[in-house]
Amino acid sequence: MSSARRIAAGTSARVGLAVLLGGVLAVVLFLRPGDDPAPPPTSPRSAAPSGVMPSATPSIPPSPKEFCDAYRTMAGAQSQYVVTPDARAAELLRERADQLLAVGTPASMPLTARGGFFVELSGVYASIGLALAPEAIPGAAELAEVQGASAAFGSFLAGSCPPF
After folding, report:
1. Is 131 helix (H, G, I), strand (E, B) or coil?
2. In terms of Cα–Cα distance, which of 67, 36, 27, 68 is closest to 163?
């Protein structure tokens, strides 16, 4: 395979991943379930006024592979919740989002991308009626307001996580 074809294949895979992630984010933010008769179960942690916090901050940042694996697992639960927005799917999405939050962010993730990650994870929690605490991802809430933060997170995923 020539290097031009490899570059084209890599670029198209990254573009595909970015489109997929953009679609998932759009679904979370715009296609929330409407008349769900049973709200997702709440726990004492979800009632905290400051929002969802990680159970423990990792002492060593995860590798990009560890982060990507946790992100993919959460995205799978999110897809399941979009298809079947019931209490069971909401609880699974909550567990997977909590696990992703507990994994932490890789040291290689740019600060602006952390802001985009905060925006995306906030949308996931909001879709099940919860709020992500601003301090849950250190320094990211302030960067979520930076123009291009979500695109920076998408670029990080495209460059660091192999295609789904």
Report:
1. coil
2. 68
pLDDT at 45 (0 to 100): 37
Residue that is written with structure tokens 């307001």 in the block: 145
pLDDT digits (tens, 9 = 90+) for 36-94: 444 444 433 333 435 666 545 567 899 999 999 999 999 999 999 999 999 999 999 99
CB burial of residue 37 (10 Å; 0-12, 13-18, 19+):
exposed
Q: Find out whether 157 and 71 touch, Cβ atoms under 8 Å.
A: yes
The tokens describing 142, both together, are 């302030």
Tell me the domain boundaries of the chain: 3-160
Question: Cα–Cα distance between 101 and 99 in angstroms, integer?
Answer: 5
Residue keyed to tokens 């123009």:
147
Q: Residue 119: CB partners within 8 Å, gap ≥ 6?
A: 144, 149, 150, 153
Residues 6+ away with beta carbon under 8 Å from 71? 100, 157, 161
Q: E strands along 9-134, which residues?
A: none
Q: How many other β-carbons are positioned within 10 Å of the β-carbon of residue 68?
A: 19
Output DSSP code: residue 90.
H
SS3 149: helix
